[in-house]
Amino acid sequence: MSLLRQPLLLLARSAAVKKAVSTMPVSAGIVRSYVPGETTATAVDATADLVDDGLRVTLDFLGEDTLDAEQAEATVAAYVDLLEQLAVRGLTRSAEVSVKLSAVGQALPDNGHKIALENARTICRAARNAGTTVTLDMEDHTTTDSTLAILHELRKDFPETGAVLQAALRRTEADCRALAHEGSRVRLCKGAYLEPEHAAFVDKLEIDRSYVRCLKVLLAGEGYPMIATHDPRMVRIASSLASRYGRTPGTYEFQMLYGIRPEEQRRLAKDGETVRVYVPYGLEWYGYLMRRLAERPQNLTFFLRSLISKK
Ligand SMILES: Cc1cc2nc3c(=O)[nH]c(=O)nc-3n(C[C@H](O)[C@H](O)[C@H](O)COP(=O)(O)OP(=O)(O)OC[C@H]3O[C@@H](n4cnc5c(N)ncnc54)[C@H](O)[C@@H]3O)c2cc1C
Hints:
alpha/beta; binds flavin-adenine dinucleotide; TIM Barrel; single chain
């Protein structure tokens, strides 16, 4: 595990550093390689380009940990607008949305859980009207129970709603078993948050082993696994497990983040796999970028350089 991962993930949650860094004009720097733009229009254009290349998309309107109910409502409005624009461009067969519940009110001190549920319901309804689906991103382990409870509620009316499970968490293999049922869409990722040892594996090898155990549960199950990783080893293992369990392409999919291993995304799609790219957009890129830097501290130099050059 990189020595820089922990400090970078701590910084990802620092309001003071966020304020200092986010006001700097880094749009031409490393942010651009992970985030195609700030506006709905740029996000929709990026989606159209990816779809032209044979890829599918899930879009994330950036933002998290909001403690402001109005901000949560603005996020809902942004998703509704995005979904309408995607429908107008005929992209909703290939593009869906990913939602962080903490961006729509989950962290609000009074009734956060309930507010997030109602806001997520509004987005699910807009997605249904546009002809597509929602996947609920998963945040740190303190939110897992609330997020899965909201998922359960939403699925009563919108059974197509997707979940995310993180192999780093000790509980996840059991959560995979509970969610590997018919009609259930589950994205499996390693987990991007700084977690305590009682809740999560910290050793990289242990996380990888957990990822493979969870893959087996999901691929052997009845649901639709969404295999979110850039790790070449995990991609290879997932492919061979998929054939071992008799899965044909289209009964599961691979997912990768915008800007990370783009050639591999296209190679897998050319080989007949379904590949979905996670496209984040908007002004609130700080937490997202810090998590990406924590995964790849080599990029820190590029980031610092782009801050200094202020382009
Ligand atoms: C579609 C998608 C959705 C996700 N949703 C969530 C979520 O809801 N909740 C959550 O906690 N996490 C989420 N994640 C993040 C995930 O948990 C991991 O933090 C992230 O994917 C890195 O893990 P990895 O599996 O790619 O493997 P790693 O072992 O981190 O990386 C494997 C290889 O991928 C390449 N790579 C990895 N990161 C980078 C980078 N930043 N820049 C360039 N190359 C890189 C490198 O070649 C590296 O050796 C999501 C990831 C994806 C792909």
